[in-house]
Amino acid sequence: MARILIFGGHGKVALLLEPLLVAQGHTVTAVIRNAAHEAEVAATGAQPVVADVEILDLDQLTNLIAGNDVVVWSAGAGGGNPSRTYAVDRDAAVRSMDAAAAAGVLRYVMVSWIGSRADHGIDPGDGFFAYADAKWAADAHLAASALDWTILAPGTLTLDPPTGRIEVDPDGRGEIARADVAAVIAAAIADDRTIGRTIRFGGGDEVIGHAIAG
């Protein structure tokens, strides 16, 4: 059983992931920005820790990560403000990777998006550009690191009930239930065959564990 630290612990996917991991016997710590969300996170079985990743420096993040076995990055600025998007989705994410390395916590799982590529094709004038640019920069930094990384890149997220099945490298928008994304994260943590891979996925017909095994 592992000690797992989740950044963005009050996000919709993270709130679905936390009880899955707790049920598997893991010790889960969820980093959240707003103390008002502590009770909701604690109800999942995870231990909430209030900290603002946007302002934590490398040493502070290293101290936060130390003692864990796995880091999951599921934090994000939520769009809308380009400067904050870069500050959280790129800069804080990159600092957390460097902090994980400094703390000797090698297993790192990034929750990205299906279009995160150098040639993502988003116009610089588009309001979505900052997010696309920031996520790709973070993913590229992770892939170039010495961490045991996995980048999970789901398509358009929905609130549909889980199916337990996905499709890797789907055509189109790759719509997928957030609950299935949570299940993919849990499965990736448990399967070392996902290390060093970017897995793009959406809803589909293949059982999650089999689909991500490569």
Topology record:
Layout: E1 3-7, H1 12-23, E2 27-32, H2 38-42, E3 47-50, H3 58-65, E4 70-73, H4 82-103, E5 107-111, H5 129-143, E6 148-154, E7 157-158, E8 165-168, E9 176-177, H6 178-190, E10 197-203, E11 206-207, H7 208-211
Parallel strand pairs: 1-2, 1-4, 2-3, 4-5, 5-6, 6-10, 7-9
Antiparallel strand pairs: 8-10, 8-11
Strand order of the largest sheet: 3-2-1-4-5-6-10-8-11
**Mean of residue pLDDT?**
97
Shape: globular
Largest sheet report: 9 strands, mixed
Enumerate the spans where pLDDT stays under 50 for 5 or more consecutive residues: none
Distance between the termini: 23 Å
Tally of helical runs: 7
Structural class: alpha/beta
* CA-atom Rg in angstroms: 16 Å
How many strands in all? 11
Please tell me about this protein's structure.
The protein has 214 residues and is an alpha/beta fold. It contains seven helices and eleven strands. The strands form two sheets. The chain has a nine-stranded mixed β-sheet with strand order 3-2-1-4-5-6-10-8-11, with helices on both faces. The chain has a two-stranded parallel ribbon with strand order 7-9. α1 crosses α6 and α4 packs parallel to α5. The radius of gyration is 16 Å and the shape is globular. The mean pLDDT is 97.
